[in-house]
TrEMBL record:
InterPro entries: Exonuc_VII_S (IPR003761), Exonuc_VII_ssu_sf (IPR037004)
GO molecular function terms attached to this record: exodeoxyribonuclease VII activity
One of the Pfam families matching this protein, by short name: Exonuc_VII_S
Subunit structure: Heterooligomer composed of large and small subunits.
Keywords: Cytoplasm, Exonuclease, Hydrolase, Nuclease
Source taxonomy: Bacteria, Pseudomonadati, Thermodesulfobacteriota, Desulfuromonadia, Desulfuromonadales
Stated name of the protein: Exodeoxyribonuclease 7 small subunit
Gene: xseB
Subcellular location: Cytoplasm
UniProt EC number: 3.1.11.6
Amino acid sequence: MTDISFEQALKELEALVERLESGDLPLEESLRCFEEGIARAAACQKRLQQAEARIEQLLHDDEGNLRIEPFADGED
């Protein structure tokens, strides 16, 4: 799989889940959707881990000490 954005992988994963939840797919198509869903979930997880690593890197001060700051949730 090519490297896709988190948003694109999540959108595709949601579409696959909707198809699977419909219950109208034949077994082989269901298996294919499930396999694709696993790949999209892994892509989302990879992007989240990369974001977490970047946040941790940004929170280190000039001496390499980790600063702990509250996560802003944007609800201010």
